[in-house]
Amino acid sequence: MARLPLPPVSLPTTSSTSITLSALPPLTIIFIYPRTGAPNESITAEWDAIPGARGCTPQACGFRDVHSDLIAAGAGRVFGLSVQTSEYQAEVKRRLGLPFELLSDERLEFADALGLPTFDWEGGRLIKRVTLAVREGRIVKVWYPVFPPDRSAAEVLEWLKAGADGK
Questions:
Q1: pTM of the model
Q2: CATH number of 23-37+49-161
C-alpha cells in the first residue's frame, strides 16, 4: 500500500466541511479505526472477540495527548477516520476534547478505493484499524495491524522523530 496515491474522495468532517485527503500538501497522519462507542454503550463479548476491534477511544485519546508533539515533529495535519456519521463523530470530538477533525467514510468510498481491510458487524461493514502517513497525496508509511491501539500515536511520533517522514 505504501507509495499508492490516495483516491480523490471528499469526506465530511466534524466541522461541517469536506476534505479531499489526496489534495493536502503537507505530511498528513490518518488513523483509521472501526468505531467509537456511545457514552452509555456497553462493550459486548462479541465485540471483544473481534481481533483488534476494541480500543478506538484509547487510540483517539493517544493522538489527542501527543497532537502538539506530532505537529512539532513534522506532521502537518492529523485526522481520525471511521464509517460513523460526521454528526456522531462531532459528539465524540467534543466529548474526548480532540484537537483534530474526524472524517466520515460512511459509504466506504475511501476504504474501498484503497482496499483497506474491513469486517462485518451488526449488518454493516467497519474498517479495521490502520494508520497512514501521507505526503502530497501518496501513502508513505502504513501501520497495520495496529496493536495495541493506545500505542499507535506514540509509534507515529517515534517514526516522525526518527526523521522517517516520507521525504
A1: 0.93
A2: 3.40.30.10
